[in-house]
Write a structure and sequence with these properties.
432 residues, alpha+beta, Bacterial polysaccharide co-polymerase-like, Helix Hairpins, 3 domains, 5 strands, 64% helix, rod-shaped, disordered N terminus, transmembrane helix
Length: 432
C-alpha cells in the first residue's frame, strides 16, 4: 500500500496591523469548499496567483489602436500622400514639356607678330583665352541688357508663356523687365569653367525651335559684345598716342606762329643771312676806308694841305667811317642800338631761341606720329573673337521637367517633414 503525497499548506497572507482601538480578529486560513480535496484546493489556489486568466484582458487592451494612432495615419495621408499625389498629377498631366538647346564657346585673343619678329624666330601668332573677357561675357549673358535685346528680337514673353496652363514652369507676363530677367536665369543655365575658360549654355523652351532661336541669338549678341570689347581695347591703345600727337601739333603751330610774328615785326626773313650780308658790307666799307686812307697818304706827299683833293679825300674818309660806325651799331658794338632799338645780337639770339623751339616741336610731332602709327599697328595685331566649339543644337525630345527625379525629391522632402513633425509631437507629449 502506497503512502499518500503530503499536501503543503498554503501560507496565509500576512496580517495587517489593525488601527488602534479596533478589535483583534483571529487569522483564518483559506476556506475550502465542501467536497474538495487538499490537492484540488492547492491546484486551484495557484492558478489565479500565476497570472494566467487574470492577465489576458490587460494584454488585449495594449494591442488595440488608440486615437493618436489614427491621428498619425491621418497626418501622413494629409502631409505626404495627398501632396505627393497632387505633385504627380501636375507633373504628368499638367506640366508642359521643355526642350533644351546647348551651345558652347570661349573667348580667344590672338596677337599677330610683325615681320621683324618672324625674322627673329618668334611665332607668328599667340592665341589664348582671356579670363577677364570671359568673366565679362559670363555676366553679360545673365544681364538685363542682353534680356532686353533678345526680347526685342524674339519676344521672350510670348515664348516663355506659350503653354496654355502651367502655373509653375510657364512665365506669367507682368510687364516688368526685372521679372523677365529672373525667369531668364531659370531658363538659361550658364556653366563656366574658370580653368579652361569654356562657357556652356543650356537654353530651355517649350518648343524646340524656340530653344534653338534663343541659343543662336545669344551667340550672335555675344559676338557683337566681344567685337565691341576689341574696339574699345584698340581705342584705349591709341587714345593716349592721339592725345600726345594733338599736343605736339599745337606746340608746332605755336612755334611756327612765333617765328612768323618775329619776321613780320623785324622784317627780317633770316637774321643769320642778314647778318652775313651786313658783315660783308662792313668788311667792304672797312676795305674802302683803308683804300681811302692810303690814297690820302699818297696825296699828302705830293700836294699841300690846302689842295682841294686833300679836302675831298678827308670827306671821303669821314663818310666811310660814318657808315662803318652805323653798321657796327647794328651789331651792338660801342653800346649803341640798331634799328627799332634792337641790335643784331639781340635779334639773332631771339631768332635762334624761336628756331630751337620750332625744331623741338617738329621732333616731338614726328615722335608722336610714329608712336600713333605703332599703337595702331599693335592694336590691329591684337584681336578678340568668340570661338564656338559646340554650335547651337536643335533638340529632338523633351528632357525637362525631370518628372521621376522631382517626384522622388518631393516625396522624400514630404516624408522627412512629416517625420520631423511626429518626433516633435512625441517629444512634447513625453514632457507632460
Amino acid at each position: 500500500m502506497q503512502n499518500p503525497t503530503p499536501i503543503k499548506p498554503v501560507p496565509a497572507a500576512p496580517a495587517t496591523a489593525a488601527p488602534a482601538g479596533a478589535p483583534q480578529q483571529p487569522a483564518q486560513g483559506p476556506k475550502t469548499a465542501p467536497g474538495q480535496s487538499g490537492a484540488g484546493q492547492g491546484g486551484a489556489g495557484q492558478g489565479p496567483q500565476a497570472g494566467g486568466p487574470a492577465q489576458a484582458p490587460k494584454a488585449a487592451s495594449l494591442a488595440r489602436p488608440k486615437t493618436r494612432h489614427y491621428g498619425l495615419a491621418a497626418s501622413f495621408l494629409l502631409m505626404v500622400l495627398l501632396p505627393l499625389a497632387g505633385v504627380i498629377y501636375y507633373l504628368y498631366a499638367v506640366a508642359a514639356d521643355q526642350y533644351v538647346s546647348r551651345v558652347g564657346f570661349a573667348v580667344r585673343s590672338e596677337e599677330i607678330r610683325s615681320a621683324q619678329d618672324l625674322l627673329g624666330g618668334l611665332s607668328s601668332s599667340l592665341a589664348g583665352s582671356s579670363s577677364s573677357d570671359t568673366n565679362i561675357l559670363y555676366e553679360f549673358i545673365q544681364s538685363q541688357d542682353l534680356v532686353q535685346q533678345i526680347d526685342e528680337d524674339l519676344d521672350l514673353e510670348a515664348i516663355f508663356s506659350r503653354p496654355e496652363f502651367d502655373p509653375v514652369f510657364a512665365y506669367r507676363p507682368t510687364g516688368d523687365i526685372e521679372d523677365l530677367v529672373s525667369y531668364w536665369q531659370k531658363m538659361v543655365k550658364v556653366h563656366y569653367d574658370s580653368s579652361s575658360g569654356l562657357i556652356e549654355l543650356q537654353t530651355h523652351a517649350f518648343r524646340p525651335e524656340d530653344a534653338l532661336a534663343i541659343s543662336e541669338t545669344i551667340m550672335a549678341r555675344s559676338t557683337v559684345m566681344i567685337n565691341n570689347l576689341s574696339a574699345i581695347a584698340r581705342e584705349d591703345a591709341t587714345r593716349y598716342a592721339l592725345e600726345e600727337l594733338e599736343e605736339a601739333v599745337e606746340r608746332l603751330k605755336t612755334a611756327r606762329e612765333a617765328i612768323t610774328r618775329f619776321r613780320s615785326e623785324t622784317r627780317i626773313v633770316d637774321p643769320e643771312a642778314d647778318v652775313q650780308g651786313q658783315m660783308g658790307l662792313l668788311n667792304s666799307l672797312e676795305g674802302q676806308l683803308a683804300e681811302a686812307q692810303i690814297e690820302r697818304s699818297l696825296l699828302s706827299e705830293t700836294v699841300t694841305d690846302s689842295d682841294p683833293r686833300m679836302d675831298q679825300a678827308d670827306r671821303r674818309i669821314a663818310v666811310i667811317e660814318g657808315m662803318i660806325e652805323s653798321e657796327r651799331a647794328k651789331f651792338g658794338i660801342g653800346g649803341e642800338s640798331g634799328p627799332d632799338g634792337q641790335d643784331y645780337s639781340t635779334l639773332v639770339g631771339e631768332f635762334e631761341r624761336l628756331t630751337v623751339d620750332r625744331r623741338y616741336a617738329e621732333e616731338t610731332y614726328i615722335a608722336a606720329q610714329a608712336t600713333l602709327d605703332s599703337a595702331r599697328a599693335e592694336a590691329q595685331r591684337q584681336s578678340r573673337y568668340l570661338a564656338v566649339y559646340a554650335s547651337p543644337t536643335l533638340p529632338q525630345s523633351a528632357r525637362y521637367p525631370q518628372r521621376e527625379l522631382l517626384t522622388l525629391e518631393i516625396g522624400l522632402f514630404l516624408l522627412l517633414g512629416w517625420a520631423v513633425m511626429v518626433l516633435i509631437y512625441y517629444s512634447l507629449r513625453d514632457r507632460r
